[in-house]
Amino acid sequence: MEKLELKSLGKINLGLDVLGRRENGYHDVKMVMQTVYLYDRIVLQKTKTPGIRLKTNLFYLPVNENNLAYRAAKLLIDEFHIKEGVYITLEKHIPVAAGMAGGSSNAAAVLYGMNRIFRLGLTEQELMERGVKLGADVPYCIMRGTVLAEGIGEELTPLPPMPRCYVLLAKPPISVSTKLVYEKLDAHEIIEHPDIDGIIGGLEAGDLRHVASRMGNVLEQVTIEEYPVIEKIKNIMKEEGALNALMSGSGPTVFGIYEDKYTACQAAARIKKSGLVKQTYVTNMHDTRRKS
User: Fold this and answer.
1) DSSP letter assigned to residue 120
2) 287 is annotated as an active-site residue
């Protein structure tokens, strides 16, 4: 195999709770992660010339070791002393710095692809063990699907799939620093914790409305205080028929859960008309678990 094309899928958090902060600065979390069918396109091609070349469609993204996709390739090249090189084409569609793990997903896709084109023979678990060196979300992005994430996000337990529905994604034109959000959270007392067990119970029962009613993200109390536009978008989604709406990760992307595509598209049109966002996406969450 000389060339491989992959879909690098984004994620949302159906539930995100923070349980405490470790001495090394990482936070213990309890999250329900969900892959969505919005993806970056990645092409890996072997080259006879050693080294890594990375090309992207966004001029402002780094194409060196400051890019997680590049670092993922380098990690395996160094470990396995790969003499050939790799040319990576990264076509971004997942919003950048949006709370959707776009960079982590890119790294996961490169690890998965390098393992295949260079026939390294690593299992999914072995890829995940290497992925956590690049970032806490990378192991999840290797696994994909509906998953309970604990520890710093690397302890993963597959869950029953999300019941059939549509998701509306909307990212306001702001950038949010995950590091700063967690630092501000540390200065707050967390009064309300999301009902993660309730979400899991809804998934086990296949009850979409139950899942939606239990969704919550403890980071909202920090990010919305700084960026009220997030709350405005959530309110429009609910007014337009969302079973619930929530910020994903540390933000600023907001998603709404809808029972049918038409209602989701109507809500997307109203949000765009409001001028709060430039781009919306209506997609689903099905068939997103990693294929071997």
Assistant:
1) -
2) no
Q: Is 287 exposed, middle or buried (0-12, 13-18, 19+ CB in 10 A)?
A: exposed
Q: Which helix (H) or strand (E) holds 125?
A: helix 124-131
What is the amino acid identity at position 241? G
Listed in sequence order, the residues at least 6 apart from 126 whose beta carbon sits closer than 8 Å to its beta carbon are none
Active-site position among 40, 137, 171, 234: 137
From residue 245, alpha-carbon distances to 65, 93, 100, 234, 271 in Å are 36, 22, 15, 5, 13
Give the mean pLDDT per block of 10 residues along the chain (292 residues). 94 94 82 96 97 97 97 98 98 92 97 98 97 94 96 93 96 88 82 93 98 96 93 98 96 96 98 94 78 50
pTM, entire model: 0.93
Q: Are 167 and 215 in contact (CB under 8 A)?
A: no
* Cα–Cα distance for residue pair 33/141, rounded to 1 Å: 10
Tokens standing for 198?
């309730």
Contact of 40 with 99, CB cutoff 8 Å:
no
- Using alpha carbons only, give the angle 246, 291, 131 rounded to the nearest 5 degrees: 70
The pLDDT value given to residue 24: 76
The SS3 of residue 70 is helix
Of 11, 30, 74, 234, the catalytic one is 11
Residue 11 is among the residues annotated as catalytic for this protein: yes
Q: Which residues pair with 27 in a beta bridge?
A: 21
How many helices (H) and strands (E) in the chain? Answer: 10, 11
Amino acid sitting at position 210 = H
Neighbouring C-beta atoms of residue 290, cutoff 10 Å: 16
Q: Is the peptide bond before 252 cis (omega within 30 degrees of 0)?
A: yes
100 three-class SS? coil
Alpha-carbon span 246 to 291, nearest angstrom: 28
